[in-house]
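Here is the promised in-class demo. Please do not try to memorize the tokens; focus on the logic of going from shape to residues.
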């Protein structure tokens, strides 16, 4: 799998190690404006060019500030 089409806004949490060691996972699209809870190492050891697409600039700031998501701030982007 190289991309996850989208995680719907109904997703309220991403568990510990949910996508860990998915070395070919290049991107995930989040539909939720507010960041869901995220577990430890949820996106650990994914593709080096991995990106997480969030809905807009306002949500980008929310994701970057949210607990757990700060680990992935360099991967966060808007479409």
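The designed amino acids, position by position:
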């Amino acid at each position: 799998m190289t991309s996850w089409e989208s995680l719907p806004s109904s997703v309220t949490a991403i568990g510990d190690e949910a996508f860990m060691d998915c070395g070919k996972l290049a991107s995930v699209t989040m539909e939720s404006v507010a960041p869901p809870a995220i577990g430890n190492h949820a996106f650990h050891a994914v593709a080096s060019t991995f990106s997480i697409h969030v809905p807009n600039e306002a949500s980008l700031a929310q994701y970057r500030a949210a607990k757990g998501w700060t680990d992935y701030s360099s991967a966060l982007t808007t479409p």
